[in-house]
Design a protein that fits this description.
Structural class: mainly alpha
Strand order of the largest sheet: 1-2
Largest sheet: 2 strands, antiparallel
Radius of gyration: 31 Å
Oligomer: single chain
Strand content: under 5%
Distance between the termini: 77 Å
């Protein structure tokens, strides 16, 4: 095989490799710079999620008809402590939650201050 042919093949291979890297870096640049708004919105939408709770299955009874396990609805509230660091925001949130939870805003504030 002549040396000119080998050099030509290596230069073509080098051009192909360089062009693939240019395409790769061009796509990375496009995803990070011009299309950044779209991906920021998608990331913001991923912060909240809905959890589907399966429906109630019914009571579990023993052979005499006595209830071993019953169904009852519960309300679970999860609050991010970092989101309610400011006293004004915390007070407003506790006022809204107090009615739904059947408690007072002062009791909610005490639970928040207990760090548990």
């Amino acid at each position: 095989m002549p040396a000119d042919s080998r050099g030509l093949r290596l230069s073509i291979l080098g051009i192909v490799v360089v062009s693939l890297f240019v395409a790769l870096f061009g796509r990375l640049w496009f995803l990070q710079v011009p299309d950044r708004e779209t991906y920021q919105q998608v990331a913001a939408a991923n912060q909240l999620r809905e959890v589907q709770i399966p429906p109630m299955r019914g009571r579990i009874l023993d052979r005499t008809g006595r209830i071993l396990a019953d169904n009852r609805r519960t309300l679970t509230v999860v609050v991010d402590r970092a989101a309610i660091r400011k006293k004004a925001v915390r007070t407003e949130l506790f006022l809204r939650l107090a009615g739904a939870l059947g408690t007072t805003p002062e009791q909610l504030d005490e639970r928040f201050q207990s760090q548990q």
